């Protein structure tokens, strides 16, 4: 098969940032995806409906003419999030979902949740209203090995939360482990997971291949090969619980290539193309539409897109560097060849 046409996809996990960076990176997402779940980890974080509506307006204002794209906004959950504010923002059509960052887990998560018990009133309201909670699933306990933080989170936080609020709709974001695949696969229909393009391609060796590789560093960090293989099986299985979320997370090159370098991989310039390559390698191109375009809307209770997108098996090279007003960016797989390309 040398071309594939399917419903236009959505990206269920995107960092668009703000200002000059937003201006620079938005076209890479909007050229491909009809809708995206927009992460709220700005500085300061997007905690109110007014802030989310203003951010949505800035995104729409930054959109290149002629590109149809709908940003789906999220509220950043804090220890003292107000359930009424979330409810009103949801009823006003501003908040599609709420994002839980354990405090200190990742980029701009300092104001995240320090103790999940503090958020029970808000989470009970989400459950009552059917608003999805999107979870960065890592414990921040420094005693726990960084490669175990997702698996330990499932055991210590997620499973007890699901027992307490069994009807809460949950997305375990950017899963990286076989434990997560098995847990999500074995749970009821209220729990789903997103899978990034980069976690389907790299294992933790990539962080050290030939030297320290900051552009391969993101959170949750890539794990052993057996986990990557489990993620590939899950993504290509056709199981409706797994869907596309790139976690494209741009940082200027100087912020990546320094001591205490930032976590985040900028995949938007080649994300759908990478997923297509992975599905082709797994002999599962016929399931790419479910993963990219059907399973997400089904979980979120949104209509599927009516437009179509076509990819062809025609190699191209990812640029080495993308200059922007906010500083240069190094895309994932910079300088490397990708087998699939978007034709229209
Ligand atoms: C994200 C970012 O840079 O905002 N970084 C990352 O490594 N994925 C935050 C996140 O989603 O964890
Ligand atoms: Zn993210």
Structural summary, described in words:
The protein has a single domain, classed as Metal-dependent hydrolases (TIM Barrel), CATH 3.20.20.140. Helix 6 (178-186) links the parallel strand 7 (170-172) and strand 8 (191-195). The radius of gyration is 19 Å and the shape is globular. It has an eight-stranded parallel beta sheet with strand order 2-3-4-5-6-7-8-9. The chain has a three-stranded antiparallel beta sheet with strand order 1-10-13, covered by helices on one side. Strands 11-12 form a two-stranded antiparallel sheet. It is of the alpha/beta class. The two termini are 17 Å apart. 33% of the residues lie in helices and 15% in strands. The chain is built from eleven helices and 13 strands. Bound molecules: N-carbamoyl-L-aspartate and zinc ion.
């Amino acid at each position: 098969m040398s071309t594939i046409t399917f419903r236009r996809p959505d990206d269920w996990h995107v960092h668009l940032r703000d200002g000059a960076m937003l201006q620079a990176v938005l076209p890479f997402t909007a050229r491909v995806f009809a809708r995206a779940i927009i992460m709220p980890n700005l500085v300061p974080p997007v905690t109110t409906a007014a802030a989310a509506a203003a951010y949505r307006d800035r995104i729409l204002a930054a959109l290149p003419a002629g590109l149809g794209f709908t940003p789906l906004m999220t509220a950043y959950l804090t220890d003292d999030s107000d359930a009424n504010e979330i409810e009103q923002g949801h009823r006003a059509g501003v908040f599609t979902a709420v994002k839980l960052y354990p405090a200190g887990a990742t980029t701009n998560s300092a104001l995240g949740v320090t103790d999940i018990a503090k958020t029970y009133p808000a989470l009970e309201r989400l459950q009552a209203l059917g608003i999805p909670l999107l979870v960065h699933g890592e414990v921040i306990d420094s005693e726990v090995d960084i490669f175990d933080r997702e698996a330990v989170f499932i055991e210590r936080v997620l499973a007890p939360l699901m027992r307490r609020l069994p009807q809460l709709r949950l997305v375990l974001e950017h899963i990286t482990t076989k434990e997560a695949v098995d847990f999500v696969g074995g749970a009821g229909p209220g729990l789903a997971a997103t899978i990034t393009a980069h976690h389907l391609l790299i294992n933790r060796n990539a962080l050290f291949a030939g030297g320290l590789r900051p552009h391969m560093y993101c959170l949750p960090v890539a794990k052993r090969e057996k986990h990557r293989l489990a993620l590939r099986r899950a993504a290509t299985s056709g199981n409706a619980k797994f869907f596309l979320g790139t976690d494209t997370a741009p940082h200027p090159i100087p912020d990546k290539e320094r001591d205490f370098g930032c976590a985040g991989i900028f995949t938007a310039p080649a994300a759908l193309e990478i997923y297509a390559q992975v599905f082709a390698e797994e002999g599962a191109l016929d399931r790419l539409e479910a993963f990219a375009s059907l399973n997400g809307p089904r979980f979120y209770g949104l209509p599927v897109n009516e437009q179509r997108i076509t990819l062809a098996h025609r190699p191209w090279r990812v640029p080495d560097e993308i200059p922007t007003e906010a500083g240069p960016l190094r895309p994932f797989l910079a300088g490397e060849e990708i087998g699939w390309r978007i034709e229209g």
